[in-house]
Amino acid sequence: MCDEEQELTGGNASGRVVRVGETVRKPWIDNTSAVQSYLDAVRARGVDVPKPLGRDQDGQQMVEYVSGALAIDLLPLGHEDLLRVGRIIRSIHDASEFFPIPDPDEWKMLLPAENPNLMCHNDLAPWNLIMGDRWVFIDWDGAGPSTRLWDLAYAAQSFGLLFEGQPVEDAAARLRAVVDGYGADLALRTALPDAMAKRTLAMFELLRSSSESGFHPWADMYVNGHGEHWRAAAEYVALNQTAWEQALSQSE
């Protein structure tokens, strides 16, 4: 007897995503084959990421289903949890050093990093972290050539809850916890505040320009609240650069 499909919600840009038994099925896109090879390589270095399972009979990509709660439903994460998030991101980046980076000119990237030198997830955020018996980042469809700085900037901003309405002192403490967990060196800590401002603004600009050009699903997201969220977040991150610099320059 075949397992029934169970539609999974929460994704904004992945197309239709369903659970079938202990697998997740979603559309096979141009980069899927390379991304599945990347996942295999990261797993081979001992990092827990969803196991890629090829294609099903309908041509859909298949990956392992990971049970647990999404981190976005458990925010704000506490200090120890944020340290763990930082350690997981570091383990992913370190494992990625062993995967040959694709030619950036031949890879579709929505928000490209300057001088990409590492294969990265590119959406390491609370809506993509499963927290249960295992802590696993899911939804690797956007993986591609990037840098540690660009990838960590987005993760630190999103897990730190660096957005409008958050007390700056609390956000700075969360930011530091993620970066401490990552074990960032002085150069990375120094570069992060500006990178977070650029990365957050880039997200807003993607949504705004997509709305103007009709580029979906980003155009829909812009008018459904994401545009205003990222506009305000970009302003918040830029206005509080001194707080982020001070938090990241403190001795561990």
UniProtKB/TrEMBL annotation:
One term of GO molecular function: transferase activity
Any one Pfam family match given in the protein's UniProt record, by short name: APH
Aminoglycoside phosphotransferase domain residues: 93-176
Source species, domain of life: Bacteria
Keywords annotated in UniProt: Transferase
SUPFAM superfamilies reported for this sequence: Protein kinase-like (PK-like) (SSF56112)
InterPro entries: Aminoglycoside_PTrfase, Kinase-like_dom_sf
Entry protein name: Aminoglycoside phosphotransferase
Annotated source species: Arthrobacter glacialis
Organism lineage string: Bacteria, Bacillati, Actinomycetota, Actinomycetes, Micrococcales
